[in-house]
Amino acid sequence: xxxxxxxxxxxxxxxxxxxxxxxxxxxxxxxxxxxxxxxxxxxxxxxxxxxxxxxxxxxxxxxxxxxxxxxxxxxxxxxxxxxxxxxxxxxxxxxxxxxxxxxxxxxxxxxxxxxxxxxxxxxxxxxxxxxxxxxxxxxxxxxxxxxxxxxxxxxxxxxxxxxxxxxxxxxxxxxxxxxxxxxxxxxxxxxxxxxxxxxxxxxxxxxxxxxxxxxxxxxxxxxxxxxxxxxxxxxxxxxxxxxxxxxxxxxxxxxxxxxxxxxxxxxxxxxxxxxxxxxxxxxxxxxxxxxxxxxxxxxxxxxxxxxxxxxxxxxxxxxxxxxxxxxxxxxxxxxxxxxxxxxxxxxxxxxxxxxxxxxxxxxxxxxxxxxxxxxxxxxxxxxxxxxxxxxxxxxxxxxxxxxxxxxxxxxxxxxxxxxxxxxxxxxxxxxxxxxxxxxxxxxxxxxxxxxxxxxxxxxxxxxxxxxxxxxxxxxxxxxxxxx
Length: 483
Hints:
Nucleotidyltransferase, domain 5; 2 domains; D-xylulokinase activity; Carb_kinase_FGGY_CS; globular; 7-stranded mixed beta sheet; Xylulose kinase; 20% strand; carbohydrate metabolism; EC 2.7.1.17; alpha/beta
């Protein structure tokens, strides 16, 4: 048995999987996010531990015959968060999360440092880990002086499982401290942000052994054999493992809280100025590129909350087929934007509102705005030389036939919809655990899911959507110039 843990922003999902890839069971637990000031987003690492204990208890109770055979664990997780430990391994303050924008000034300063983009392969975004520590040094210096280790969120859970300070390449690539080509901590990047090598966890590949489950935990959990704990990975890299996106040309589009267009890469080929992320994959000698929009289904959830309606009901009201763009235009920058704008201060907008517009028109505008932003991501990926022939759709938004056909038409790519089953980050984590526990090669374990159906673009509607996209694209600079 292999346990995959997906440490998300709002909850932990656990998946218990057999060696043949079949799912035994799943469990979930939630935890809160704190916003003590505007633009701040924090979480208590103790809540992650409580959630892990909860999902393990649920799986043990539900599957008493299978659970004792557990032999491998891996954690996938939200990236970029700064979990700070002192010399006694006590947490110094709440974790500063990926969607926290307080360090925008520090990110700009770091991004201008010589060699920063060249070594890290990326723009330094405010959500990355390095600018958070520069902010901490300036605003909470007494805490900064006590920092002995900086762990990413999923690495803190791995530390609790194993007692080891360890990270891996895919998550570390989002700190702005990693030499992404060499897959090693960079002394130059650490020095630029006032950090030391001894404050970093050791690095392993995501599919490699990070440590063993602590004996006391194994006893508490009713496990008698040694349990391997893998390096794990950042959520999108591990989701790529879950859908078998491992080699050049493989990719997926994720319509989740944020939106992601990801392409696996066989080599390191960054172009930071496009705001495309170039990160290490969770498997050896592989990288990936992705464009990220900060509010995908979050945009629809925002609309649903303000209309007092259910997001799924709003989506269903549009039907299953697109029939051309609406006149209303939505800019989905509710929390700023990453690709291609790298703009933490921009905010969303609704344009061309008419007195006759109702909930369906608003829903269509929101879905189109998200799809237009994903098209921006595709154009950014293309500018780096990345090519995609088709993508797999994952995430909650992929349950909307309308949204998927809209994305297929705007991206001009066939979009595959997987057959029902588990194929996200929790499954990818279970596969990494299997590799670490058994020595299996990733490509022998991480197969693509069965495709239930393929949604093709609608060529007869593409000219109209192309015109609407160009209008959307021209709106960002005008919006940015508004006081």
